[in-house]
């Protein structure tokens, strides 16, 4: 009955011409399903498919129940193809239409409408398969990127942002769309242009690809993306299904996708696309996010050509460019005439040479994508529906060097033209010296005069505790001295005072309540403290101010068992030995027994929330607080029971 309805309704819309049709340029095109020259993109326009489908919907849309079924399914069912489901991305629900039996079709227009429905299904189905095929290897690559850059453990990124970036794979896969061997075809740009038009017409499509499955945005740690990529891809494929259903269900969007004729030919998607290609933009996004989490920026020496500059000084080494376009840590942009280098405001002695080579050698990104981020620094990735392209996948910070001719000018002028000075910019190299400390990323004129720069401070310029060879940590919280202002210390207010037993070490806290407080029962803490457990209160390092900076402090790394400032480490008074805090990579664990907690409200602020490493305890504390087998939130909760009960 459905087929009869179609035949009656479609009679006025039938194409009366034979299979050879005239084109606007007075040439002819064979649009028969069994054409010896194959299926052609130009047949969409030659057959007037936009007009045909628009008029078919006007005449038959209500009878075919298109409002409920959507265009593709109602067209299929009305034409008698009730067993096909072409608005999914699962395999084997929409088979190709026969091209060697043209008598099965009422008109060439009917055939090309059916064929475009099938090829859209085929494209997105194979796109989904390609995503699944590449997810495992891509996850391993992302793990390698994060391990190399080594951002802080707590480095979250938005899951919605990741879903949007996964949408960049549509751009990549459309470029790898090819043709069945032996069949003729046109540029894959027709498919890209058609999809771009569909996305531009329906804003819903771009929004659909980027949404998460919950109302509230979720966050995922950078270090977890690799292991969780398969799950993220699965969520994205759910969004992809909604995209397919919008294209196949809305005949106006369907026409936009097909208007260039890209889906009118025999097309296939290369399922063998390497994961490094398909997920390449995701790799770039993760790499940039890791750099950002580590505080690493792209620094630009404007108008400096590193090869020429290296000939004027022995302070840097650069003899030739590598295949990736870099010379050690330096990358030269031929088009702009500028030299770039990675720069960490908190790690001036790091050249980042290994990281720079790893980025190119492993195919994580091209170096121009990492260094030339001037237009995207601080921005979110943006999807351009009309081109299927993404911009600003790399959005870590960019700083332009502000070079001065003399050390005195450099100390008085800003370090950068567009960024704040680093915390120790302008430090003299040593007592009775005029040269200033500069980072490895510096490529300015001071390097050409002996004695005007140094890469390390003189041993006489700073009184250090411990035996670490890295001096830079002492210029940052919590050791940055009170008379050294910085953005990290802006607005610091002394609210709680603390001191060691002898009083030689004094410090202040800028907040009256820690971020968290807990008892640690691990063996290391018990042995080092000579106590049944350690009471620790967690603060940001910028919440702490030592009166004399690092002077008078002693450091101990429990892993190496050496007295060195190597994080994480124990910090104590060098005179009386009072343990003051545990310094981690991002936080500090203060010991509240050293604080002047005047008043009951202050003391209550330091009450613990939980116990950690409780199985290692030597004393039971039945206080009703949560008791974790290891770190809180990352191990199992224990029942509160006596130790002797466990031993039984």
UniProtKB/TrEMBL annotation:
Residues 1-17 form the signal peptide. PROSITE patterns: CENP_V_GFA. Keywords: Lyase, Metal-binding, Signal, Zinc. Residues 633-648 have a biased composition (Basic and acidic residues). Residues 496-607 form the CENP-V/GFA domain. It comes from the Eukaryota. GO terms for molecular function: carbon-sulfur lyase activity; metal ion binding. InterPro entries: CENP-V/GFA, Mss4-like_sf. Residues 625-648 are annotated as: Disordered. Belongs to the Gfa family. This is CENP-V/GFA domain-containing protein.
């Amino acid at each position: 009955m459905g087929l009869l309805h179609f035949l009656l309704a479609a009679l006025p819309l039938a194409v009366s011409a034979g299979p050879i049709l005239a084109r606007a340029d007075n040439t002819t095109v064979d649009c028969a399903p069994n054409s010896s020259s194959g299926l052609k993109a130009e047949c969409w326009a030659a057959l007037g498919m936009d007009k045909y489908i628009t008029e078919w919907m006007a005449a038959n849309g209500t009878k075919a129940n298109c409002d409920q079924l959507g265009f593709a399914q109602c067209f299929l069912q009305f034409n008698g193809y009730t067993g096909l489901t072409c608005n999914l991305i699962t395999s084997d629900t929409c088979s190709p239409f026969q091209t060697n039996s043209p008598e099965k079709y009422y008109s060439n227009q009917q055939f090309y409408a059916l064929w475009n429905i099938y090829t859209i299904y085929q494209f997105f189905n194979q796109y989904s398969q390609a995503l699944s095929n590449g997810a495992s290897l891509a996850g391993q690559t992302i793990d390698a990127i994060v391990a190399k850059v080594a951002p802080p453990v707590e480095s979250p990124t938005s899951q919605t942002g990741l879903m949007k970036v996964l949408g960049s794979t549509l751009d990549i896969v459309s470029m790898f769309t090819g043709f069945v061997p032996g069949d003729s075809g046109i540029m894959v740009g027709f498919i890209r242009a058609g999809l771009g038009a569909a996305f531009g017409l329906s804003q819903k499509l771009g929004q659909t690809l980027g949404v998460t499955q919950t109302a509230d945005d979720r966050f995922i740690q950078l270090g977890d993306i690799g292991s969780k990529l398969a799950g993220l891809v699965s969520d994205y494929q759910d969004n992809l299904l909604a995209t397919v259903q919008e294209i196949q269900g809305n005949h106006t969007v369907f026409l936009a996708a097909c208007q260039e004729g890209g889906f009118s030919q025999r097309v296939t998607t290369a399922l063998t696309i390497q994961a490094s290609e398909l997920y390449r933009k995701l790799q770039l996004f993760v790499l940039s996010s890791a750099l950002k989490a580590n505080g690493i920026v792209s620094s630009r020496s404007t108008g400096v050509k590193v090869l020429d500059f290296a000939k004027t000084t022995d302070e840097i080494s650069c003899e030739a460019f590598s295949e990736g376009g870099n010379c050690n840590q330096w990358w030269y942009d031929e088009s702009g005439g500028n030299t770039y280098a990675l720069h960490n405001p908190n790690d001036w002695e790091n050249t980042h040479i290994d990281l720079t080579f790893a980025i190119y050698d492993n195919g994580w990104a091209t170096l121009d994508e990492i260094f030339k981020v001037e237009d995207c620094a601080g921005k979110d990735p943006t999807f351009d529906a009309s081109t299927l392209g993404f911009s600003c996948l790399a959005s870590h910070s960019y700083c332009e060097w502000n070079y001065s001719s003399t050390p005195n000018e450099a100390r008085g002028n800003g370090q950068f033209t567009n960024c704040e000075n680093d915390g120790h910019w302008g430090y003299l190299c040593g007592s009775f010296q005029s040269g200033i400390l500069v980072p490895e990323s510096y490529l300015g004129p001071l390097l050409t005069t002996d004695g005007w720069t140094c890469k390390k401070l003189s041993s006489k310029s700073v009184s250090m505790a411990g035996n670490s060879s890295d001096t830079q940590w002492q210029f940052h919280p919590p050791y940055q001295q009170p008379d050294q202002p910085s953005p990290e210390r802006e607005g610091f207010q002394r609210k709680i005072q603390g001191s060691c037993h002898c009083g030689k070490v004094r410090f202040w806290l800028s907040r009256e309540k820690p971020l968290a407080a807990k008892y640690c029962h691990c063996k290391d803490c018990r042995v080092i403290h000579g106590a049944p457990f350690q009471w620790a209160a967690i603060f940001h390092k910028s919440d702490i101010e030592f009166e004399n900076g690092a002077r008078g402090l002693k450091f101990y790394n429990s892993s190496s068992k050496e007295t060195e400032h190597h994080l994480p480490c124990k910090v104590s008074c060098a005179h009386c030995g009072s343990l003051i805090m545990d310094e981690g990579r991002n936080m500090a664990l203060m010991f509240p027994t050293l604080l002047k907690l005047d008043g009951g409200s202050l003391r209550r602020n330091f009450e613990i929330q939980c116990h950690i490493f409780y199985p290692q305890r030597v004393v039971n504390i039945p206080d009703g607080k949560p008791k974790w087998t290891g770190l809180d939130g990352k191990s199992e909760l224990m029942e509160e029971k006596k130790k002797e009960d466990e031993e039984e």
